[in-house]
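Hi support team,

I've been running sequence recovery on a batch of backbones for a student project. Most finish fine, but this one hangs at about 90% for roughly twenty minutes before it completes. I'm not sure whether the input is malformed or the queue is just slow. I've pasted the structure tokens below so you can try to reproduce it. Let me know if you need the job ID as well.

Thanks,
M.K.
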């Protein structure tokens, strides 16, 4: 009898164990659909280097730093070690990054380049706790040191998949180099964190020359031929097959031709509207909604595209490259219209914005997201607290930054100007939503009296090319 009871219990235990295993398997496979977060979406690097509650330390251990600086404009990788918060990572790739910023730093005889740190460049499988690549942003034309950081925070608040970032004090072979912003590069680790192990394709559309038509950078459908989208596929972050190319081209075709909500077959409309809410708020003229049309990532999965944020050092109306004496029109940009955030010529060539806004349902949702951003990020004091606490945290490092583009006094002025700009911008957007301030370029030109007064703001105080001299 005792043996029978033992066997019966063993059988029950086995049955329960098997059932539990099945449940775990189902939860693993369907976790995303039922609201569970897979462990892979919270990689260890996010709570280490990208804990933004304090300033981290990265020591670049390079054998010949002077040679690296001399060859930096060529953007060639060198092999070095990096020590992150006291822990050494070997055989890491390092190079300078940037387009005009890199060129201008070189032109003015400076050494403070933004940098790319690629952990697996020389050694396959090498990572920083799962992270394959990061950027070290130099705060070029950003005396406040806040533009990128706060914009990514806004994007995250609006639930747009965004790079993680944190401030780091960079030394080179133990010698002080400066305060930089570490930014998670949108590559494999980023895609896995945001979209899961079976993620889609990631691209960074960019032009070869601004003199070209660059329809593909504008996300315009032209033909079915992949070669007509070289500016997209040339910058694919992962291997891109012919079927991958055709899937993306088909998405652009649907975006071009679909009417009303049919566009949802090819566009993650909700994510795109959230993105444009922040993008328009920060008045980034060097972006998809600017004349250049670039500085964004494009994500495609199962034939559906979304747009992801990147590069905001020239946002907040400080895009003045090529202008030795940039025009200061703070009132224009503080009140920049949310319904037509660019000239008609540009808007008609930006289908991801223009074609969505032609649908009343999406236009209304866009305004609702703006209301959310203004109400819960600005009007409740969150922004002021975030900006003030961050500025206080990094101030001692800015003060001793040996390669900074500006003085400590310029930094304090930059923070003050940045904060004022954002608060006045929020006030103007609220007025535009309520109808007390015109929300289109044409109506604002006809009625300049209703705009928020921004005479106390001098835009170049946030950073300009003259600071490099």
């Amino acid at each position: 009898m005792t043996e029978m009871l033992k066997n019966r219990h063993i059988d029950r235990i086995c049955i329960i164990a098997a059932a539990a295993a099945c449940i775990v398997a189902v939860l693993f496979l369907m976790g995303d659909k039922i609201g569970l977060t897979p462990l892979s979406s919270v990689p260890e690097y996010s709570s280490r280097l990208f804990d933004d509650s304090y300033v981290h330390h990265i020591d670049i251990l390079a054998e010949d730093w002077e040679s690296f600086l001399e060859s930096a404009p060529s953007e060639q990788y060198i092999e070095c070690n990096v020590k992150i918060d006291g822990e050494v990572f070997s055989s890491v790739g390092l190079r300078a990054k940037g387009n005009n910023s890199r060129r201008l730093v070189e032109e003015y005889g400076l050494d403070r380049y933004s940098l790319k740190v690629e952990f697996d460049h020389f050694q396959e499988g090498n990572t920083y706790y799962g992270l394959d690549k990061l950027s070290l942003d130099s705060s070029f034309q950003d005396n406040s040191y806040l533009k990128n950081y706060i914009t990514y925070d806004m994007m995250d608040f609006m639930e747009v998949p965004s790079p993680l970032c944190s401030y780091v004090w960079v030394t080179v072979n133990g010698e002080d180099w400066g305060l930089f912003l570490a930014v998670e590069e949108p590559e494999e680790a980023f895609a896995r964190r945001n979209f899961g192990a079976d993620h889609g394709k990631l691209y960074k559309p960019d032009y070869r020359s601004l003199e070209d038509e660059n329809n593909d950078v504008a996300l315009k459908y032209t033909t079915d031929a992949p070669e007509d989208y070289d500016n997209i596929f040339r910058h694919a972050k992962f291997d891109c097959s012919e079927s991958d190319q055709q899937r993306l081209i088909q998405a652009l075709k649907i975006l071009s031709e679909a009417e009303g909500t049919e566009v949802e077959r090819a566009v993650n409309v909700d994510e795109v509207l959230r993105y444009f809410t922040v993008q328009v708020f920060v008045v980034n003229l060097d972006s998809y909604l600017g004349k250049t049309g670039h500085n964004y990532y494009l994500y495609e999965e199962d034939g559906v595209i979304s747009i992801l944020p990147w590069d905001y050092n020239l946002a907040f109306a400080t895009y003045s490259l090529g202008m030795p004496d940039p025009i200061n029109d703070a009132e224009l940009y503080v009140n920049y219209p949310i319904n037509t955030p660019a000239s008609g010529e540009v808007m008609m060539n930006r289908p991801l914005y223009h074609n969505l806004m032609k649908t009343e349902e999406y236009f209304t949702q866009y305004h609702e997201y703006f209301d959310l951003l203004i109400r819960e990020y600005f009007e409740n004091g969150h922004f002021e607290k975030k900006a003030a606490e961050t500025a206080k945290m990094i101030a001692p490092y800015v003060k001793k930054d040996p390669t900074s583009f500006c003085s400590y006094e310029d930094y304090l002025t930059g923070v003050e100007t940045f904060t004022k700009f954002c608060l006045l911008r929020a006030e103007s957007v609220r007025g535009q939503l309520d109808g007390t301030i015109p929300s289109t370029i044409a109506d604002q030109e006809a009625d300049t009296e209703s705009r928020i007064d921004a005479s106390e703001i001098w835009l170049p105080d946030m950073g300009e090319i003259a600071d490099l001299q």
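--
Follow-up from support: It reproduced on our side and the slowdown came from queue contention, not your input. The longest strand covers residues 87-97. No action needed from you.
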